[in-house]
């Protein structure tokens, strides 16, 4: 009797290292993010959190090791389809309204805003009344919320978020944490780079980086305090 | 074959581009666009008719025609080789497309094939480069037809053909190196092969380099050489490969470029040479060496007495290889140009001055670093002007070494050691003028801002751009005067000394302005009771 194939993890970092010139910024680092799991990537400034997220999104090439998304090399079309990436600063078209963003970007991914309950999503993020406004008129927090809506209004299996809580008010933070819980409950996975110690308890696992090295990978409750 | 999702995505992409273009056109001020077109066209026509006038004034003679028939093709081959090298390097640095951050994040990270999403921008870039090549090439052909035998139409046609082929080949080379994702280091080193080969051909009067075909195309009105077809083959190969590989761009390099290109455009619009230089270095991944070429121990007596000079020496010790090579190349260009000037091609003194000015901008790096952080300068309990002056002095020392190197190369190029004497006499004041000029091109040393009528702002802007290179050119005049003396059979030393004294006075005034600028502005402000 043949044993069923073990499903490939949504994200697998295998001995990933990144150099900037002759300086090593990260690694080598190895860990996986499994389906239905939310993982917090924690560390001080310059520890390599954003670099690892950008490598997983296919924006940066690793200097060593390999990055697999559902068993496919990061950056390949199928990997890009599987990953939704929110950068630390919102990337939004100044000449499109929020609703036009959702319409355009979900179609770019072969979907429609209706399939992702766009109106409800906007309401939950507190953007219901601003859907037809241009993001250029928004504050930093509202832009961050718009970027979250754009990233969630498309099909994906894994959500990557870089510093999601910066600039968000309490209601926005709560809404985002609820949305992350829902993604997990539906079998999706989430990898979040954050400084926010308060939000850690909402995640299944924490990966702690220090000066580019992985120093801890385990349950959130066991994260070292320093 | 595209999947339904891909087709839907491509439709969405095309629709968005239409909407954005339409909104962009709605937002754009048609008067502004027309005015820009008008100024560019007028400037182009003015430059063309100026060049026509200059060309018509020159009497080429049979000797000149023979020279052109023998050598012009090799010069065109060299230009083509340099263009291909520039293209290849641009591709290795994330070019040739400057994709904005939004397209990068939303479109290139979407599952749509990058080959499809980059099809339109790539086509536009190739078409635009061909168009620019046609216009410039036709103008060059017209200029050539004024002096060289052959039909005007033939020169114009060969000019536009060769320029268009060179332009699209350079863009094609950029797409090839970008799509192939070759190691940057190898591309940078490999890009020197073609220009070096073309220079060797030029010196040895041969036509063996792969870009020789472009020269044959340019010389078609003189001689129909079937090897001209190799230029077409090179262009088709590069554009074809580049077009095929356009979708394999490195996201990392494209991201790096997209971040910098917008800043470079802004700095260019502001004529901020320092920012342009810094951004250009970032584009080329040029960072100071973490292991210096030489080390200077801290805390010594020299450091206590002249800390600024020691700090500057540490800065030079961390020059990356690329910067050191660039200054060495500029030194060679300046030396060869001065050597050619000594042998009679007077106009090349301008090329020498530009090379010296660019080298001086590199040598004032420690001063520029200091001025990049004005807050730190204000925290030092010494008058800022004194610190700045010490940085200028270290720049002058470094530039004097460069100047002496230029003299040696010029002597080798002209086979006349008298030029070394002239360059040595002028070295210190000319280096001072070049360093002062480079420092004055930093925005901080602008003349104090005044409310000027708008009509005066344009000329003031042009003056601001031209005045530093002009000061550097002035520093090289003693060598020109010495050359004239040598041509008359007189001693080169007395006229060189006479002019050097004048250069020294002008350089001293410029350095004094740099040293005392803050005090002068502050005194002027105190004098004016209405000043803030």
**Biggest chain pair contact, residues each?**
A-B, 27 and 34 residues
Strand order of the largest sheet of chain A: 6-7-8-3-9-10
Stretches of chain A where pLDDT is under 50 for at least 5 consecutive residues are none
Count the DSSP helices of chain A: 6
Coarse shape of chain B: globular
Could you give the count of β-strands of chain B? 0
Helix and strand run of chain A: EEEHEEHEHHHEHEEE
Largest sheet of chain A: 6 strands, mixed
Structure classification of chain A? alpha/beta
User: N- to C-terminal separation of chain B?
Assistant: 69 Å
Q: From the alpha-carbon coordinates, what is the Rg of chain B to the nearest angstrom?
A: 26 Å
- Assembly type of the shown chains? heterodimer
What overall geometry of chain A do the principal axes of the alpha carbons give? globular
**What Rg of chain A do the Cα atoms give?**
17 Å
What labels would you give this structure?
heterodimer; A: 226 residues; alpha/beta; six-stranded mixed sheet; 28% strand; B: 532 residues; mainly alpha; 2 domains
Verbal overview:
Chain A is an alpha/beta fold and 226 residues long. Helix content of chain A is 27%, strand content 28%. In chain A, helix 6 (170-185) links the parallel strand 7 (158-162) and strand 8. The mean pLDDT of chain A is 86. Chain B has 2 domains: 60-268, no CATH class; 290-443 and 459-520, no CATH class. Chain B is built from 24 helices and no strands. In chain B, helix 3 (61-92) crosses helix 10 (212-218). The longest helix of chain B has 35 residues, at 493-527. The chains are: A alpha/beta (226), B mainly alpha (532). At the A-B interface, helix 2 and helix 3 of A face helix 1, helix 4 and helix 12 of B.
